[in-house]
């Protein structure tokens, strides 16, 4: 599933469902997750991100992104394991960075797996996920 248009958030740290990045899953199905998100914005705001799954689902994910507070795109890559639905802040820059989440999901119910995001720190400068970003699932069982 690819983003058809840019989407921006300003002055908000409340996670919101991305307008384009969600895919239907079937209860009991196990899926591999990967994504490529082009994120741009104020490095002071950074990006708050999670992968939201249907109720009763299990699985883990990692943001595959640079740590918070970078301004030039250099630094440590965050590969820490998080539970689905658990959010984490990652760094972005005005020029843009790639955020590459990876994970696994066993769906607890029919529904959708979706990207949710906001600013990690509320600022008046927009944080934007660019068109062409994508989310992909591959059913593994």
Automatic annotation (TrEMBL):
Superkingdom in the source lineage: Bacteria
Identification of the protein by name: Uncharacterized protein
Organism of derivation: [Kitasatospora] papulosa
Phylogenetic classification of the source organism: Bacteria, Bacillati, Actinomycetota, Actinomycetes, Kitasatosporales
């Amino acid at each position: 599933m690819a983003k058809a248009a840019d989407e921006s958030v300003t002055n908000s740290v409340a996670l919101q469902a991305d307008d384009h990045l969600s895919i239907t899953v079937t209860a009991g199905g196990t899926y591999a997750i990967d994504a490529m998100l082009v994120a741009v914005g104020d490095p002071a705001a950074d990006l708050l991100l999670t992968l939201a799954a249907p109720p009763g689902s299990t699985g883990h994910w990692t943001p595959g992104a640079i740590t918070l507070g970078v301004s030039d795109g250099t630094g440590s890559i965050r590969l820490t394991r998080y539970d689905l639905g658990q959010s984490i802040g990652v760094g972005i820059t005005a020029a843009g960075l790639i955020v590459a989440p990876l994970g696994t999901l066993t769906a607890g119910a029919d529904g959708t797996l979706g990207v949710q995001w906001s600013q990690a720190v509320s600022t008046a400068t927009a944080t934007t996920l660019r068109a062409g970003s994508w989310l992909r699932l591959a059913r593994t069982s």
